[in-house]
Write a structure and sequence with these properties.
Helix content of chain A: over 70%
Helix content of chain B: over 70%
Oligomer: heterodimer
Number of helices of chain A: 13
Low-confidence stretches of chain B: none
Structural class of chain B: mainly alpha
Mean pLDDT of chain B: 82
Number of domains of chain A: 2
Strand content of chain A: under 5%
Shape of chain B: extended
Chain lengths: 247, 128
């Protein structure tokens, strides 16, 4: 057993390749034989990975030393590197054609999410403006929440809620996108760019689009990458100030 | 050689991230703003130019497409390393705020997609 531990502890990333490969293999089999292809294999794989994450802690399943390699393979470095590589399948003309809609989507995404999140916080007992703003910002992405919260100086439990709201968003976007793709008419580059701008969580957008149609990923990722920055810019400043006018 | 493709991808990635970090600093943020987007633009433009000049061909490109195919496994590993338990145990407010705002975003997608020219729809073979 000791040799086994040493083997996996020293080769975590390689073991993660094997684990993910197996998970994808079984997910595709479940998709093909159990659901007759109605639910995409990728969606089942991502969903099962999320379920497995419940058995872990702060880093999901990667909290166990045995599975620590998953956190390396799933790090933001690898995520961004592989997402950039998908640009080889994207066409510049399509990004340009959707420019205006993409910018509107980015601003609308941050502003609407902030206010809806803040109002929800108000109705659920967090009536001070700073907490409302932090939770609204957390609903944008789990980076915007803590950035806003520390700028406004709220307590750590509110920041924890804002991070959790961002993680919930990632999960809902991952699971919900393939289910609601038809309603959103998410079958072309332009709508994918708008989708990325509105939802904004790079992880959720890319995972959701991958489960819908991998060809859409580069377009959604393109706008989503600007969302967190815009959120960090607007939430603790203009959006917070406008919120103080009402509450 | 495949490594030239991987090298080109790494170059574009790092330059894009640098621009993103620079933009972040400019607006007083410690994180990167749009780095992935800049890197993608650079990769599209640079690889297109180098292909036209015949400095690279399919062999080099496969070094990039390999990493593009690794994207789904990376996303699955990422999903398995999310703090899913905290998202659940932070209670109803986190679930409601995160969930409802995402649904509102979904509702807005077809409305905002109407801005500008009509999109070209997906083709039979799944390509766009």
């Amino acid at each position: 057993m000791e040799v086994f531990d040493q083997l996996l502890a020293k080769n975590g990333l390689i073991f993660a390749f094997l684990l993910v490969g197996l998970l994808i293999y079984f997910s595709y089999a479940v998709s093909k034989y159990l659901f007759k292809g109605r639910i995409p294999g990728v969606a089942i794989a991502v969903l099962s990975a999320l379920v497995l994450a419940f058995f872990g802690g702060e880093k999901g399943l990667a909290d166990y030393p045995l599975f620590a390699g998953l956190a390396i393979l799933g790090s933001s470095m690898f995520r961004d590197f592989t997402v950039v590589a998908t640009a080889m399948g994207a066409q510049l003309s399509k990004i340009k054609a959707a420019g205006a809609a993409g910018v509107v989507a980015l601003f609308a995404g941050v502003i609407v999410t902030f206010y809806v999140g803040a109002i929800m916080a108000y109705f659920m007992g967090y009536t001070d403006v700073k907490s409302m703003a932090t939770i609204g910002a957390g609903a944008c992405t789990y980076i915007v929440g803590p950035v806003t919260g520390s700028a406004l100086g709220v307590s750590s439990d509110v920041i924890a809620i804002s991070i959790a709201a961002g993680v919930v968003k990632t999960i809902v976007a991952t699971v919900g996108t393939p289910l609601l793709a038809k309603y959103m008419k998410l079958d072309n580059a332009k709508t994918a760019l708008v989708f990325g701008g509105l939802i904004g969580t790079t992880s959720g957008v890319t995972a959701g689009l991958a489960a819908t149609n991998p060809k859409l990923v580069p377009y959604g990722a393109f706008t989503a990458t600007f969302y967190t920055g815009l959120g960090c810019l607007l939430c603790p400043s203009i959006l917070f100030i406008t919120l103080t006018w009402f509450f | 050689m495949k490594i030239y493709g991987v090298g080109l991808l790494a170059f574009c990635f790092l330059v894009g991230k640098l621009l993103g970090l620079g933009l972040g600093r400019l607006i007083n943020l410690s994180n990167d703003v749009g780095g992935v987007g800049f890197a993608m633009l650079l990769l599209i433009v640079l690889s297109g130019y180098m292909r036209k000049k015949q400095w690279i061909d399919e062999k080099e490109i496969t070094g990039i497409t390999f990493w593009s195919a690794m994207y789904i496994p990376v996303i699955i590993a990422m999903a398995a390393s999310l703090n899913a338990k905290a998202a659940y145990s932070a209670g109803w407010l986190a679930i409601a705020a995160g969930g409802l705002t995402t649904l509102v975003g979904f509702i807005l997608v077809p409305l905002i997609a109407k801005i500008g020219a009509a999109p070209e729809h997906i083709e039979e073979d799944g390509s766009i």
